[in-house]
Amino acid sequence: MSDSIRLSRRRFLQVLAGGAGVLLVGIRTASATDAPLPAAMLGDTFYDLGAYVRIDSDGNVLIGARDPDTGTGVATSLPRIIADELDADWKSVSVVPLGLGVTDNNGQPRWTYGRQVGGTGGSIPAAWNDLRSVGALARWLLLQAAARRFGVAADRLRCDSGTVIAPDGRRLSYGSLAGDASKIALPNNPPAPKTPDRYQLIGSPAGDVDAREIVTGQTQYAIDHYYGDALVAVLVHCPWPDGTLASFDFADAKAVKGVVDVISLKPEPGQPLGSTVIAPAVAVLAEDTWSALQGRQKLKLEWKPGASGSENSAVLEQQADALLAGKTAPTSRVRDDGDVDAAGKKAARRLQASYYQPWLAHATAEPMNCMVRLEKDHASVVVPTQAPQKAWAVVQRLTGLGPDQIEVSVPRVGGGYGRRLDHDYVAEAVMLAKVVNKPVRLLWMREQDLEHDYYRSGSVHQLSMTMDRKRQLIGWDQRMASASALVHRGVPDNRLWTSELQADQLPAALVPNYRSDWYALNSAIPRGPMRGMPHLSNAFAVESFIDEIAHSMKEDPLDTHMRLLGTPRQLSLSAGGVLDTARLINVLKLVTDRIGWKNWLHSVNGLGIACWHVEGAYVAHAIEVAMQGEKLVIERAVCAVDVGRVINPTGLEGQVAGATLDALSIALNLAITFKDGQIQQHNLKDYPLASMAQLPDAVEVIVVPHDDLPPIGASFLAMPTAAPALANAVFRATAVRVRRLPLMKELLRLL
Asked: Mean of the pLDDT values across residues 617-632?
C-alpha cells in the first residue's frame, strides 16, 4: 500500500463486523488489535475513517480516500479503484477524506494506511494494487454470503451495480447481504482482483466527487474550521530568515481590546528546514481575527539582519554566470557518457546558448493555516497538508505525545504545489498552543505567503552541442548553477543536485557523448519542493535549445526531434526503468498533427513544440501564438500525455489542462527577486498570476490509453513542456529568441 512500507506475504485483509447489518473491509499491516475501529464506521456521522469500505443494510457504500486532495482529483480516482473491484453502484457511493492513520508500535508510529502523500504524482501508482485488493475482498465476501442464500456456488454468481445476480436472474442487494458477509471467515489467500476486461469504472470518465460543493462554496477547507474557544494567531516574521529581534514594544498591541497575548517565536536549532519556524516571528493572539490584526498593527519591532542581509538575486545570477564561464570544477558531475571533449574535436557544427530561470514562490490559493488543540494526553490538529505523516512528526516532537495520541485531520487542501510538504506553520501553531494552554487557530496573510516561502531557486543553464557531418548529435554538454532545495534538509552534500537535475533527463541516453554538471550557489533564502521540480526549469532549457539547433540547421524542429529520438526502442535508465522512445515520439506526433504542424513554416501565427518524459510517463505540447502589437495572444495549446492505464479520464484531462495553465502563468509573468536579503514581492499585484485574457481559451488534451500498463501519476506531468513550447512559438511569430523567464518582460525588452 506504500512505497515506504514493504508488505510481506503475511499481510492480510481485515474484515470487521461493525454492527448489525454492516460490512467493513480494510487493509491492515499488522494485527487487528493494533488500533481501535474508528467510531465513525459504526454510526451515521463519518469522520476520521480508516481505509475501509463500509456497506450498511440500506445499501449505502462509504469509501475513504486516504491521500490529501490538493486539487489533483485523488478523492475521486482512489475510491473508484475500490468501487470498480467491488462492482458498486457509483451513484450509491459516498467518499470521505481520511485523516492520518497512525497506531502505537512500542512508542513508534505504525502507519495504518501506508503512504499518505498528495500532490506529488505518486498517489495512484502507490495505491493501485492494494486498493484493488480491498474492493476484491469485499466483493468476494458478498458473493459468499449470496451463495449461501441462493444455494448456488459462488463462482456461478456475478456482481453488478451493488447487487449479486444468480444464474436464474434472482438478485440480492449488497445492503441485504452486508450483515451476513461481515461474519464470513476470511479466505486463506486474498481474492484475485478483476481482469481489466471487466472494469466498468476504471477508465471511464467521472466528475470530481467534491465538484458541487466546490462550485457552490460549500467545501470546508482547513481555514474554515475553528474551535469555539480557540485564539486566533497572526504573525509578523523577520524579513531575514537568519535575522534576530533587536528591540520590541508589545504594550500597544496588548492594549487592543480582544488581544490576549503577544509571543515571540524562534526557529529551533538543529531542526531540518521545513520542520520548525521559518524565521523569527512575533505572534499576536486574540479572541477574533479582527482584534489580532489590529494588535499586529500596533507592534513596535526592530529586526536585525543576519548573513542573508546582503543577498541580492541579481548578484547571485552573476555568480552563476561566472561559475559556468570559468574553469571551476562542478559541485557534482551528474552524468558523464562517452567523451564529450573528444567529440568536440571532431565536430562539424557547434552551438551554445544560456537560459535563465527566476526564483519562484508557491502562491497557493489557501494561505498557510493550522488549528491545534492540546490536552494532557491528546492533540488534535486540523491542517492543509500534502504529507500528514510529516505534520504528525512535528506535533509529536513538540508535544512528546504517543503516536496514537495525535489526531491529524486533513480537509480538502486549497492548493499545495509542494509548499505543504513543509510544516513550519504547524510548528508555529503547536508552539503557541503550548504557551497559552488554549486551542490556537493560526492564520497567515497573503503577504506572508510570498515573503516567507520555501522558494524554487533561480538557475542558469549553459548548453552546448556538437554535430557530425551527417547532422547527428554526437556531443551534449550541459551545465546548471542553482541553489539546491535540499540544503539543511538532512541530505548528503553529494546528493544535493537531485532537487535540481535528473541524470536521465532528455537528451541523456540519446547522445553518445553526454555530460551534465551542477554548480551549487550558496544562499540563505529558504528553498523547498516546487511543483514540477526539477523538470520545469530543465525542460525549458533543453527543449528551447533543441529548437535553436533546428533553426541553426534551417530545418523543421519536428525533424530535429525525430532524428534525436531515433528509431523506436527502449533505453535503460540509470535510475531504473526505461525510456520508450516510441511512446515519446507518439505524443509528439499527436500534438503536431492536432495543431496542424505541417504548415509550421508558412503559418501566419507562430507554432512551437516540446516533449519530455517523467518517471515512465510521456508528455508533449504544441502551442500557437500571435502578436497583436505588444500583446501576446496564445491562440491554442495542445497537450498529449501517456500515463499508462488511466483511472479517470476526466480527472486526468483536468490535471493536464490545469498544469498547462499553471506552467504558462509561471512562464509569462512570475519571478521572485530579493535585495538586501528581503523579498521584493509582497502580494499578488507584485506576483501577477496570469489572467484569463493571457491564457488560451482551452487546453486541448489528448490522452493515450495504455491498458496493458500500470497507472503512473500525472499531477505535474504537463508542466515541463508548456514553457518551451510557448517560447519556441514566440520565436516563430517574432524572430525573438527568449532565453530568460518570465517571458513577457523579456520579450518586450527585446522587441
From this structure: 97
Answer yes or no: same fold for 222-306+368-443 and 490-509+524-750: yes
**For range 525-534, the mean pLDDT:** 97
CATH 3.10.450.50 fits 490-509+524-750, yes or no: no
Residue pLDDT, tens place only, 304-351 = 999 999 999 999 999 999 999 988 999 999 999 999 999 999 899 999
In angstroms, the CA 667 to CA 547 distance is 17
Residue 18 near residue 24 (C-beta atoms within 8 A): yes
Q: 222-306+368-443 has which fold?
A: Aldehyde Oxidoreductase; domain 4 (3.30.365)
**Residue by residue, what is the 3-state secondary structure of 177-207?**
HHHHHCCCCCCCCCCCCCCHHHCCCCCCCCC
- Is pLDDT above 50 for 33? no
290 or 14: whose pLDDT is higher? Answer: 290
> Nearest-5° angle of CA 357, CA 362, CA 368?
160
Of 486, 464, 483, nearest in space to 474 by CA: 464
Across 350-354, average pLDDT? 97
C-alpha distance from residue 564 to each of 312, 471, 511, 611, 674 (Å): 39, 10, 8, 12, 39
Q: d(Cα 603, Cα 596) in Å, to the nearest integer?
A: 9
Q: Looking at the predicted structure, is the pLDDT value of residue 41 above 70?
A: no
Which 8-state DSSP code applies to residue 359?
B
Q: Are 670 and 664 in contact (CB under 8 A)?
A: no
Identify the CATH number of the domain defined by range 12-208.
3.30.365.10
Residue-level pLDDT at 21:
61
| Domain parsing of the chain, residue ranges | 12-208, 222-306+368-443, 490-509+524-750
Residue 558: name the closest of 549, 567, 569 by CA. Answer: 549
Residues 6+ apart with CB under 8 A from 345: none
